[in-house]
Amino acid sequence: MGARHTSRVVASLLGLAVLAGIGYALRWRSNPTPCPYSQRVWIDLPRPGITRTRVRTLLEPRPGERILELGPGTGYYTGAIAQSVEPNGTVHAVDVQQAMVDHLRTRMRKRGRRTVQPIRGDGRRLPYPDDSFDAAYLVLVLGEIPEQGRALAELERVLEPGGRLVVGESLPDPHFVGFGTLRRRAERHGLEFEDRVGTRGSYYARFAVAPSPPT
Question: What region holds the Methyltransferase type domain (predicted)?
Answer without folding.
Answer: 68-167
